[in-house]
Structures are given as structure tokens and as C-alpha cells.
Design brief:
By secondary structure, the chain is an alpha/beta fold. It has 2 domains: about 5-300, Rossmann fold (3-Layer(aba) Sandwich), CATH 3.40.50; about 305-460, Ferritin. The protein is about 55% helix and about 10% strand. The strands form 4 sheets. The chain has a 7-stranded parallel sheet with strand order 3-2-1-4-5-6-11, with helices on both faces. The longest helix is centred in the last third of the chain and has 27 residues, at about 380-405.
């Protein structure tokens, strides 16, 4: 076994998958611990030693660490569910114990920048894991980074989708917190260099670009760097981290379960408290990337305007449907006023309010489903959502004609049932792209189902 053998855990994750080829490029023999080897990057999978298994299994973990000079600990819970802090604690202690027993000479862990004092549960867990590794008896470097800028980074995905989708909006107050982001290439540079730190180095090391920005600054500068228009975003003090994570999950393709720990990190300032990384590990050739350079590198294969184009197209179709329905609807005509109505029918003033909100929801949720499916490399799913919408919108407009113009209550009831079924199908097809879309379109389907029941009751009462 080479004296320069490094174990990388979390190699299928965003940072780990980029760390492996960087280590190989520096002459390291790389071993990875993976539950599903088929999920590893095919570009380097055949160049590494793969140990199949789970870090929670002591036997597998011991085998993976044996003979390694350096061990990268890139594991942490991102679900925020149940006893995740205890799970992280147990896993870190087991890793520390097995690394010490295997004679590992260096542990490297990637944690998060944070202030002193009380922290969110997620960030506190990350800090505690670092402390456990630092107390392991194995020299440990805990690199602490803020928002990592790179395509595929969950924190960057959240930033760019919020920016692309919210030209004007109100968000949580943590948008004004200070952050020192860092390009993913620079994080990987420091991770590789940390492997060669002297045995006397056992500490946290803050990494980040020199500039301090707020999240709002990053949104505005992302927009400028990618050629989007100005972003006008205000903040409100009422969104709790949980509500904010649900808000992020609705607006972006980042699932609420992933958004929750990300938001948990952002509710604090994430800035460096020291600048020792350069002296200890050396900066990347050419220096650290600035924000605009990092964004341009991260968006080389991304179309920042996809969302805007999709929303414009879908909104035009939904808007035309709403206009047609409005022109066909005439609640003040004598025929409608003479109908016997059930006692539970909502007041007439409620219908335009509800339909306006639902049309906006349909436009945003459907556009998001199409854009997210295309971005995920699922053009067939995007096409299915488009087809479902193309069926739904004519049915939507037709109901008003059947009811108010043809004045055929049985036909209107049949049309309402068809519309409800079509709306449910639209929600079903959009649902896999994110629960927020399923919920929004599900509300639309529920209202259409209610309209079916109401139409049927009107038909019965006036037959």
C-alpha cells in the first residue's frame, strides 16, 4: 500500500466527487467508501479502490481505514429528521476511534463557518462533529467554509434558483446576514493541501474569499454576472427557519428537507474569524476566485434564463385561459340569478379572488415543474407536464362557456368533472419535480373537484 493513500468518505457527494480526481492528480492513491459503487462518478471510478459498505458498520469502516495515511470525513446528515444530531455524534466518534486504531495520520473534515455562541441545531451538530474529530488523538484539520459556489452545490443551487425566480419578492431576514462564500475549486484546493499539514496542526481553519457579502448582495451580483435584470428583494422578520425552508422548497427545486439545514446555516453570519489558510496551506495558483469569476465558472453549463422563458410561455397560456373564462362568465345575467343555489355555495365575490390566486399558482407551479424537469435532464417528464397543461387549459375555459353561455347544467357538470380529473393529472405529472408543485397544483385540483360537486348540485336543484 502506498504511503500516500487517502480515504474519501462521501465520495458520491458534491465536494467529495470533485476531491477524488484532484487527489489523483496530485499522485495520491485514493480509496472510497461507498454504499452504492454504481453511483460514483464513472470518470474516476475505475481509478480508485472502492470499499463497498456503510460508515455506520464498524467492520467496513475499519477495513476502509486500514493502510490509509489520510482520511477525509465528508459525512453529515442533511435530512434534519429525528435524532440526526445523535446519529452524527455516534458516526463521528466511531470514525475517530477507527482512524486512531488504524494508524491514520491525518483527518480532514469540511465544516461550516459560524459565529461564537448559540447556533442552529444543524450548524451546532457540524461544529460538534469537528470537536469530536479534533479530540480523537489523530491530527485533524477542520476546514470551515460558507456558501460553496459551484454547479451541483446545494447552497449554490438555492442561491441561483432564488435569484432566477424572484425578480421581486420578500424573503426572510437572514438574506441580510454576512457571508464569505468560496468557489468549489478553491475548497478542493485547500482540502488537498490539508492532507500534507504537519502533525502539529490540529485545529479549525477558516476558508473563504476575502470579500464579505450578504445573501442579498449575492443574489444581485449573481443576476448581474449572468445577465439577468435587477433583483428587488426585501426582507420580513416573520419567517422562522422552518417556514423559510418550506418557502425555499416551494420556490426552488431544492427539497425542503435539504433547504432546512441550509437555512439553519444561513441564519447566522458566516464569515472568517482568522486568515491562516494561506500561510498553512498556500492559496490556489492565481489566487482565490472572486464572486463573479466563481459564478461564471459555475454557470458554464447552466441556462440562467430558462426559468424566465418558461414562466413567460406558461403565464401567457394561463393568462389567455383566464381572460377567456372571464369573458364567458356572466354572474349578473337573469338566468344565473334565477337559479336555486345550495346554502353552502360561496358568495359570488369569492370566486374571482380564488380563481386569480389559482391561476397564478398554476402558472408558477407548472413553469417550475417544466424548468426543473428539463434542468434535471428529464425532457420526457417536461413534455408530459406541457401536454397535461395543454389539455387542462381548454377544459378550464370551456366550463365557463358550458355553464354561462350554453346554460346546460348537466353539460357543465360533465365539463367540471373532466376539468377536475385533468387538474389532478397535471398535479400528478408535476409532483415528481418537487412537493411544492404537487401541493400548489393539488389545491387547484381540489377547487375544481369542489366546482364539480357544486355544478352537480346546481343541476339537481334546477332539474
Amino acid at each position: 500500500m502506498s504511503d500516500r493513500t487517502a480515504l474519501v468518505t462521501g465520495a458520491s457527494g458534491y465536494v467529495g466527487s470533485q476531491l477524488v480526481p484532484a487527489l489523483l492528480g496530485q499522485g495520491w492513491t485514493v480509496r472510497v467508501l461507498a454504499r452504492s459503487p454504481e453511483g460514483l462518478d464513472s470518470a474516476w471510478r475505475d481509478r480508485v479502490d472502492v470499499v463497498q459498505g456503510d460508515a455506520t458498520n464498524p467492520d467496513t469502516l475499519g477495513d476502509a481505514l486500514t493502510g490509509c495515511r489520510v482520511a477525509y470525513y465528508l459525512l453529515h446528515s442533511m435530512d434534519g429528521e429525528g435524532d440526526y444530531r445523535e446519529r452524527d455524534r455516534r458516526l463521528a466518534r466511531s470514525f475517530a476511534e477507527h482512524a486512531r486504531d488504524a494508524g491514520v495520520r491525518r483527518i480532514v473534515y469540511l465544516s461550516g463557518l459560524h459565529p461564537a455562541g448559540e447556533l442552529s441545531d444543524h450548524l451546532a451538530s457540524r461544529v460538534e462533529v469537528g470537536e469530536i474529530l479534533l479530540e480523537s488523538g489523530v491530527p485533524t484539520a477542520v476546514l470551515q467554509a460558507g456558501v460553496v459556489l459551484g454547479e451541483g452545490s446545494a447552497s449554490f443551487d438555492m442561491l441561483r434558483h432564488l435569484t432566477e425566480r424572484l425578480p421581486v419578492a420578500f424573503g426572510p431576514r437572514w438574506l441580510r446576514n454576512r457571508i464569505q462564500p468560496i468557489a468549489v475549486d478553491d475548497v478542493v484546493h485547500y482540502l488537498v493541501r490539508a492532507a500534507d499539514l504537519g502533525s502539529d496542526v490540529n485545529r479549525t481553519i477558516d476558508v473563504g474569499m476575502p470579500e464579505q457579502l450578504t445573501y442579498l448582495d449575492m443574489m444581485r451580483r449573481y443576476a448581474a454576472a449572468t445577465g439577468l435584470g435587477p433583483r428587488l428583494v426585501g426582507t420580513v422578520p416573520v419567517l422562522t427557519p422552518r417556514l423559510a425552508s418550506l418557502w425555499v422548497g416551494l420556490v426552488t427545486p431544492v427539497p425542503a428537507g435539504i433547504a432546512r439545514p441550509l437555512v439553519g446555516s444561513l441564519i447566522h453570519d458566516a464569515v472568517k474569524s482568522e486568515d491562516d489558510a494561506s500561510a498553512l496551506m498556500g492559496d490556489p495558483p492565481g489566487g482565490l476566485m472572486g464572486f463573479e469569476e466563481a459564478v461564471r465558472a459555475a454557470t458554464q453549463e447552466i441556462d440562467p434564463r430558462r426559468w424566465g422563458r418558461t414562466l413567460a410561455t406558461v403565464s401567457a397560456a394561463v393568462g389567455m385561459t383566464a381572460l377567456a373564462g372571464s369573458l364567458l362568465t356572466d354572474p349578473d345575467n337573469p338566468w344565473y340569478r334565477s337559479l336555486r343555489k345550495p346554502t353552502w355555495q360561496p358568495p359570488s365575490a369569492a370566486f374571482p379572488i380564488v380563481w386569480t390566486a389559482l391561476y397564478a399558482t398554476v402558472a408558477v407551479a407548472t413553469a417550475a415543474a417544466i424548468a426543473d424537469a428539463e434542468e434535471a435532464g428529464e425532457p420526457e417528464r417536461a413534455a408530459q407536464v406541457r401536454k397535461a397543461l395543454a389539455v387542462n387549459l381548454p377544459l378550464n375555459a370551456a366550463w365557463s362557456g358550458l355553464f354561462f353561455r350554453s346554460r346546460s347544467l348537466p353539460a357543465a357538470t360533465a365539463g367540471a368533472v373532466a376539468l377536475a380529473a385533468s387538474s389532478a393529472d397535471l398535479a400528478r405529472r408535476a409532483g415528481p419535480t418537487g412537493p411544492g408543485k404537487a401541493v400548489g397544483l393539488g389545491l387547484y385540483a381540489a377547487w375544481c373537484a369542489f366546482a364539480s360537486v357544486l355544478s352537480a348540485e346546481l343541476s339537481r336543484l334546477n332539474s
